[in-house]
Design goal:
This protein is mainly alpha-helical. The chain contains 13 helices and no strands. Keywords: Membrane, Transmembrane, Transmembrane helix.
Amino acid sequence: MNTRKRLTLSLVIVFSSALLAVVSALRMVAPAVLDGLDTLGPGLAERVLPDAVCAAIGLAAGLSGVVIGLLSRRASSSPMLRSAAIVVTAVTIPLIPGGMIPVAGYTFAMVVIVGVVVLAALLVRRHLWWGLAAIAVLVGILTWAVVRLHGAELAGTFLASLVTILPGALLAAAHLILVVALIAWVLAGSGERRGVTASWVLRHRTPITIVAACCALPYTVARASWLTPWPLLAPSDVNLADLPMVLLTGLSLGAAMLAGGVLTLGLILPWGRHFPRWMGGLGGRAVPVPLAVVPASIVAALFTVGGADLVLSVLDGEIGDGSLAQILELALVFPFWLWGPLLGLAAWGYVMDRRDASVPDQFTRPETASSEPVVTRRS
């Protein structure tokens, strides 16, 4: 890791840890000040521990993270410091606020719309007529969503709700960023040394990534069925044709889930290493490793924590009727508990594979002059 990347990572660890420490301290001495942050559900730790204990743990983790961040620039190879970072990571994960999965789903659905528009614009730069055709189809879909399904009203409702929960969402994002930054620093500090687990992940990264991407299929199929007379996971005794906003919500979330599965496959497909040729201005260039790994790592942490929170909510009867059949149904249709860990492993394998690709093969010797026939000239 070069000096600039190490400095950036250190600053991220310091600032996110400091935020966690400040918030935790305020929760201990003046909890009323932070009433506006309780916009999301409780984290995994808050389900079993008192608020004061969780605040004390958060303060200790935050202060420890600040120290690790300050020392990380000079002590990247210190085993003791890496062990401390692993402990802080393990402690921080249960402190992440719950209820982030729905917020992330709606947010990513809007990001997908913007992303599709950007891709269409890049296509126009390289292939004009194909790009114009793609834009025409996109405009038709958006017009149908706005006019027939009240898309503008739905977007306004979501943005209003997002403003309400924004403080809690930003706090959860700070937790996630701290966890990912600490893990990235620990892995970067290990250098080229790979243990049994790392070697296994690299060797099996393709099936791991495929299984992770397939986690998007159950939900995507269920939402796509809303366009048929046999909608799955739809509100009971309700005609979706009479509820256009509900229909648009389901289709948007299904499209976001499908996009997430496709992006997961990018960790093993060629366009995850080099931008496709049809992307004007970017085609053929190498995809920056952080561009693929940072979002994947944050989503992996979010899915892992959110998936565990969702399973506990189902088991506690907070979601559904608590029956075994519904528990299995929700666990299979919303497999974030599986997708998160697998996505994290897939991102790790991607990093190792890209690192190997950037290092010349030590067993390949370039041809030297001594390998050529030697011609001597006699004087």
